[in-house]
Amino acid sequence: MSSSATYKGSCHCGKISFSATISAPLESGHEVISCNCSVCARNGYLFVYLKDDAIKFHSGEGEGRNYGNLLFLSYTFGQGRLVHDFCPKCGTSIFGTSMLPGAFEGMKGINVRTFDHVDLNSLTLKKVDGKGL
After folding, report:
1. How many CB atoms sit inside 10 A of residue 90's CB?
2. Integer Cα distance of 43 and 57 in angstroms
3. Distance in angstroms (rounded) separating the CA atoms of residues 103 and 29
4. Which pLDDT band holds residue 32 (cuts at 50, 70, 90)?
């Protein structure tokens, strides 16, 4: 099996599309974060944290936070530890970015549910107690 894999993904309406290269393919047991905090539970987030240069956005525009030439709407809650970014048209939760210095700097937590052709039942989930933070 390859030591890395590239996955294509998008929001529901297709306004935002991207590709993400993961050093160990999801199918090989790469851990995916399943957090139980209120926003992750409501949005169904399943995060895989990747360096910014492993993610290439191909389309998307709107109003909100700017990443290159792409714009997303964003949301924070509680202590504002993570900014959640989503499509300004359909609202699909695409990724989160840590706001804590030293925590996941230069990385994004990409929602694996936005990837094309991934068998969610085959993922290796790592449970995180976000409620307890």
Report:
1. 13
2. 21
3. 23
4. very high
Q: Render pLDDT for 38-78 as a digit per residue (tens, 0 to 9).
A: 888 998 999 999 999 999 988 764 444 555 555 778 888 87
> From CA 108, how far away is CA 2, in angstroms rounded?
23
Closest CA to 116 of 8, 21, 18: 8
Distance (Å, whole) CA 125 – CA 36: 12
Structure tokens belonging to residue 101: 């210095």
CA distance 25 to 81: 28
The gap between the terminal CA atoms of the chain, to the nearest Å, is 37
H/E stretch holding 42 reads helix 38-43
Report which residue type is found at 13: C
Q: How many residues does the chain have?
A: 133
Q: Considering just the CA atoms, what is the radius of gyration of the chain in Å?
A: 14
Six-digit token string for 39? 């926003």
